[in-house]
Amino acid sequence: MMSLDSLRLGVLVVTLAAACAADVRRRTVPNALTFPALLLGLTLAGRQGGAPELWRALAGVGVASLALLPYAGRMLGAGDVKLLWAVGALTGPPFTLWALLCSALAGGVLALAWAARRGVLAHALRSAALGGQAMLAARSARAPEGLAADSRAGRMPYAPAIALGVVAAAGLRHWGLVP
Predict the structure, then answer these.
(1) What is the DSSP letter of 120?
(2) Where residue 109 falls among pLDDT bands split at 50, 70, 90?
(3) Which DSSP string corresponds to 123-179?
(4) Is the pLDDT of residue 140 over 60?
(5) What's the number of CA atoms in the CB half-sphere (13 Å) around residue 116?
(6) What is the pLDDT of residues 65-81, one digit of tens each?
(7) How much is the average pLDDT of 11-34?
């Protein structure tokens, strides 16, 4: 019989793979993918360890909510945030925090490669600087002038960066470098 931990890992892997495929093809991570994974993560946590494990999964969702900051700065899409919520529900808070940090690093590297491949690296760096201003002024209803929702480089799919971040965090945990 499959353990609930193995089932959670399977759900995580399938969700990340499907999210990458959808995001690369259509530049969107569908709710039909993220919400079932989120709900399944919470359900499996509750079944595995009752209320304490359910609270741990909810805390993972809370940690993943840090992704709302780059979302407010238009650096992430809503589907990316919901995908990270599913990761949080399936893995818990410490892992989710490391996955977020690793995803940000992977996203930065992928964004530079994405922009360089399209010949718009200087424009992308300028947009990133303006996006940072937008994050700092997230309470403002308007993004700074010059920040386009879709830059000349095109909108980069971020689900692959999230998947790479999750894999990197798993590697760090496997090697005992993080809790």
Answers:
(1) -
(2) very high
(3) HHHHHHHHHHHHHHTTTSSSPPTT--SS-TT-PPP-HHHHHHHHHHHHHHHHTTS--
(4) no
(5) 6
(6) 999 999 998 889 999 99
(7) 97
The residue among 53, 87, 43, 51 whose CA lies nearest residue 67 is 87
Alpha-carbon distance 140 to 160, whole Å? 29
C-alpha–C-alpha distance, residues 60 and 55, integer Å:
9
First to last CA, the chain: 28
Tokens of 48: 């595995």
φ, ψ for residue 178 (rounded to 5)? -140, 160
What is the three-state SS of 75-110? Answer: CCCHHHHHHHHHHHHHHCHHHHHHHHHHHHHHHHHH
